[in-house]
Design brief:
single chain, Udp-n-acetylmuramoylalanyl-d-glutamate--2,6- Diaminopimelate Ligase, Chain: A, domain 1, 3 domains, six-stranded mixed β-sheet, 24% strand, Cobalamin biosynthesis protein CbiG, GbiG_N_sf, CobE/GbiG_C, CbiG_hydrolase
Length: 332
């Protein structure tokens, strides 16, 4: 998490520096060295994962108000009074991690974390905070309130999980006996009206002809997702053979999705254990019988989830990193 601290007085600046030692981040004082409140907030809202204002909450609220857009994209915002008595998360408490950050700040300076989200106030399961702790993407954030609302009203909430979840199931949650009954689902393949939480564990293995455009790769990826019914948001990285490391289309495709892409030699790909879809043609060109499956499995250090899919001269496969979710939804 990248953090940025802004103080308004010398006392606040001293506290900000103290906090930054334990919870590293940039430190600035409003009005010094050309730092203005509006410009600082505008810049940090884009570039930082968390903004910590050391001063009055009203100043922070006015500074961030023009930039607030969505709970899925807004950074965490925490306000700490300059005496270090209270740490108050005021934006993105769950998905952005502001509640956890407020608790961490409180532990450093002895403050009281003032947590106002309803699920926390009542001590019940928070599905969005759980998703964040399990490294999952929330596909339909507007459905979070439906799950939380049922729990707050004392109603049962039913879930579906395509992965075993360790630990004790939180109070109020029950395993759905049919997919249609689920209020939320932990899955790579979203269907129905549940709140879908998609683990960010996928590595996309890619093979392609020389000169393949980013548009062709995009179309092939869309067809791949449709073929298997899985959420594109599950993918966090891409992998291929080193012969493709200078392919403009491949690099542009990965950059457009924000994926790091790693390249491996034929020898490295041949060394990957397992059964893969062989191609004599690919073997003759690259020196290895399969690129997409082997590259995905090697980079994920996991297992093949969806095998080779061919479309318009592009081959794709999905491997998943090891994933062991548990029922914790707050930092210990």
């Amino acid at each position: 998490m990248t953090r940025a601290y802004l103080a308004f007085t010398e006392t606040g600046l001293a506290l900000a520096k103290r906090l930054a030692v334990a919870l590293p981040g940039s430190v600035a004082r409003c009005g010094r060295d050309g730092v203005s409140l509006a410009e600082w907030a505008s810049a940090q809202f884009v570039h930082s994962d968390a903004l910590i204002f050391v001063g009055a909450a009203g100043l922070a609220v006015r500074a961030i108000a023009p930039h607030c857009k969505s709970k899925t994209t807004d950074p965490a915002v925490v306000v700490v009074d300059e005496c270090g008595r209270f740490a108050v998360p005021i934006l993105s408490g769950h998905l952005g991690g502001a509640n956890d950050l407020a608790r961490a700040i409180a532990a450093v300076c002895g403050a009281v974390p003032v947590i106002t989200t309803a699920t926390d106030a009542h001590g019940i399961f928070a599905v969005d905070e759980w998703a964040k702790h399990q490294n999952c993407m929330v596909l339909e954030p507007e459905r979070i309130k439906l799950v939380s609302g049922k729990l707050l009203a004392g109603q049962p909430v039913y879930y579906r999980a395509d992965f075993p979840v360790m630990g004790t199931v939180p109070a109020g949650l029950f395993l759905a006996d049919t997919p249609e009954k689920a209020d939320f689902a932990l899955t790579l393949c979203p269907t129905g009206q549940a709140l879908h939480l998609v683990p960010r564990i996928g590595v996309l293995g890619i093979g392609c002809k020389r000169g393949t455009s980013a548009e062709t790769l995009e179309a092939a990826f869309a067809a791949f997702c449709t073929r298997y019914g899985f959420a594109a948001q599950a993918v966090t990285a891409a992998a291929s053979i080193d012969l493709k490391q200078n392919e403009p289309g491949l690099l542009a495709f990965c950059q457009a999705h924000g994926w790091p892409v790693r390249f491996y030699s034929a020898a490295q790909l041949r060394s990957v254990p397992g059964q893969f879809t062989p191609s004599p043609f690919v073997q003759s060109v690259t020196g290895v019988d399969n690129v997409c499956e082997r590259a995905a499995v090697l980079d994920a250090d996991g297992s093949l989830f969806y095998p080779k899919f061919a479309c318009s001269g592009v081959t794709l496969a999905l491997a998943c990193r090891p994933f062991a979710p548990d029922w914790r939804w707050q930092n210990a």
